[in-house]
Structures are given as structure tokens and as C-alpha cells.
Amino acid sequence: MSSSLANQSIIAVALFVSLLGLVTSAAAEPSKPNVIVILCDNLGYGDIGCFGSTKHRTPQIDQMAAEGLKLTDFYVSSGVCTPSRASLMTGCYPRRVNMHVSARGGAVLRPVGRRGLHPDEVTIAEVLKSQGYATACIGKWHLGDQPQFLPTRQGFDTYFGIPYSDDMTPRPSQNWPPLPLMKDERVVEAPADRNTLTRRYTEASIEFIRQNRDRPFFLYLPHAMPGSTQHPFASKRFRGKSANGPWGDSVEEIDWSTGEILKALKELELDSKTLVLWTSDNGAPRRNPPQGINTPLGGWGYTTREGGMRVPCVVRWPGKIPAGSVSHELCTTMDLLPTFAALARTTVPQERIIDGKDIWPLLSGEAGATSPHEAFYYYQRGQLQAVRSGKWKLQLPRPAKGKRNPAQELALFDVRADAAESVNLAKSHPEIARKLQGLAEQARVDLGDDDRPGRNQRPAGHEPNPQPRVLISR
Ligand SMILES: [Ca+2]
User: Fold this and answer.
1) How many domains does the chain have?
2) φ, ψ for residue 385 (rounded to 5)?
3) What is the pTM of this model?
4) Angle, alpha carbons 98-77-114 (nearest 5°)
5) Which residues on adjacent β-strands are paired with residue 333?
6) Helix (H/G/I), strand (E/B), else coil: 385
7) Looking at the predicted structure, is the pLDDT value of residue 1 above 80?
8) How far does residue 319's CA lie from ligand 1's centre (Å)?
């Protein structure tokens, strides 16, 4: 063999070995996981079995918890829909993205509204879409009902659902249209048949999963139920069947829905490739007679009490998240965007502040993993009302503001031992109270408080749309 031939052989072998290396490393690189977020509307901390409900039968969600992780100290950023959902989508506090109040200063967006989540904000769907994910939003959006604010303009390939709350039906003195059920940017049914929403959202979700079984997908499923009406809706199969009236019926139908989705994942052999996170957008509101349950937390939805902002959360991903695990570390819906971005092997937007953190160490049960948040802030609309750090929650003093906002004294609670916020420890732990007041002051500077603007609120905020119009079928 001539030396040049020998050299060529060596080069060929080297080339082959390095190609082999490339092939094996590509094969060894895990595919990007699918992500499913199931978000209930107004469902309370104690409304499902694995979080203590004795009234509602939720075997599917309980089984999901047994196969995955329960987060006991998981928070939403607001006690009401719109700001809570804005945070979930963007990883930011509502004030950061200027979604803490509606155009008229109300707590949530209304139909035919002037505002919505600013199109320039970066959503989870946009982050994952940029990484090759198929994306769908199926359910309640509530981040703007005008075309420029719809899910289809915020990174979702497809949308199916009602763009706002299910109780926003025509009423005198409002130009609200019959409740619109939309496919992408078209109204396909009005008024929407609310009894069948949970069933139809479930069917559409499973169809989306089937269609995208061979590529990574992100499914955002914000249910309409138990929702905002005095009489939550359910399919005939579930109506009148629970021990807790229409509220319980709708929760039990959501449990069925969750089971169907998990069943579809198993059948399609996607179980080991899919993270499913199940939670609620805020706690159960006060009703008379009572419907939803926040026990053992104190207070009701629409407030900054624990019952308003701490929600049940179950996360499942067989093989990656230890079965039957529980974490008491503080984490939030704002952490979803950074966590999912990391799972998709990308980063959060670098040119802007994102409040959420990657909580994969907590989800995956890494030894010694702790909350990435030194402080968590409880805002009611634009007002900072409380701050939590570790096990401590400081309720900030404030004067009365309207009937629904009574005066509050400074109060310190150990919300790990006293989730009902019943024993004020401010006098016995003045140094803790002082420390938390310092953290509150940082938030006032950064995010603002009431009429005081924050240094790092995004100035563009959400663009008012001067001439909103009623969405119609076209
Ligand atoms: Ca809600």
C-alpha cells in the first residue's frame, strides 16, 4: 500500500468515525418535550381530591399527582383572570406588562375592549414556536378580544374558544355581543353552548395532540370552568351528578377531561415525551351559598389572601419528574415561560426583564433545590398589598378604599404553618416584618404601587385600540 493510499484510508476512517460521532450525538440528544398546560378558571385550592377535597370526585387528577409532583406553594400573580393570565403567558408581573387594570381601571378586560396584551410582549407560545413547536390555545383567552390581541397574534398556530369570561353575556347598557365561540379569528357559534365547552375543548385538544404526535407541541388548555357564573356548566353526563351542585359537576367533568388527555398521550406513546401541568388561574371566589373551596387557605378569590392567589398545581412527566413527589417551595405561573424555554433548549428573551425563573430543579426533584424567589409580591390591580419571603407573608398596612377594600393593619403570618392567616406575628417578629418591608420597597421602585409608576414597567404597556368592534362571523 502506497503511503498516500494509506493516508487516504486513515482520513476516510477518521471521517467515518467523526460522522459516526455526529450521528450518535444526534441520536443521544433527547427530543424536545411536548408541553401541556391545563388551566382551570376560579377553581379553589381545596377543590380537588389530592389537595384535600372531600366533596369532588377527581380520580384522574389524583392519579396524575400520584404519578407526578404536587406543588403546594404555587402562586398566580393576581386574584383575577386577566392579570393572572398575562403573567402565565409572559413570565412577568402584571404591572411589568401593564395588564394589571383594564382601560377603564377595572380588574379584568371586558368584551369589545380597547386593550389587550401588547403584541410586542413575548409569550410562551412564541418562545416555543421559535423552537419548532406546534402551538394551540384551546379555551378562555382573556388577554384582549380584538383581532390584534388574539392568541393567533401571540404565537399560537390555532385558537378555539371564548376570548373572555363565560359570564360576559349581553346585558343592557353594554354593546356586548352574544358569547362568541371562535376558531382562530372567526366566530363560529354565538351564543356559545356553554354546557358542551369542556367536552368540545377536550376533543379539540386530543385532535391537536394526534395531529402533532411526530413533532414537539405546546397545548394551552384554559378551561372555561368552573368559571365566573353562579351556575357553572357541564355536559349532560355530569350535570346533577356531583355532591356539590353545578360547581362540583363542572369540576368532575374537568377531571374526566384530564383523564382523556392523559389516556391519549399513553395511546400515542407520548407519555415519556410530555410534561403536563395542571393548575388554576386564581382561587375560588366568595359565593352565597358557598361553591368553590380554598381550604385550608384563608380568604377568597379576587383578593390577595392566600385563598385568592395560591392555587393547586400538579405536574407530570413520567421518567423525568419523580412519581408521588411533593414540593413546598414557593414558585409561580411566571416560572413556566423560563422553565419551558430551558426544556426546549432556548432562553427567555434577553433584552427585557422576565420575573419568572427556571424551576426545573424543583420539578425534577433535584436534591436540595429551593425556591428561586427571594420575594413574591401580591398585587391587587396596581396596589401592592403583601409580600412573601420564605414562610413569611407580610400584609402591608393600607387605608380603606371603597366598600370592597377595607383598611388593613400591618400583619405578619407564617403561611407555612398558618395558611389561614389567622395569627398576626408582627409584634413578636419585628425584624422579619422590617426585612419584608424592605423587599416591598424594592417592588415599589421596580414595579410601582398604586398610582406610583415603577422604574421598570414597560412604558409601551398595552396599546389602546381606539375603535374596538364586535367580533362577527366571517
Ligand atoms: Ca379566574
Assistant:
1) 2
2) -110, -20
3) 0.93
4) 30
5) none
6) strand
7) no
8) 32
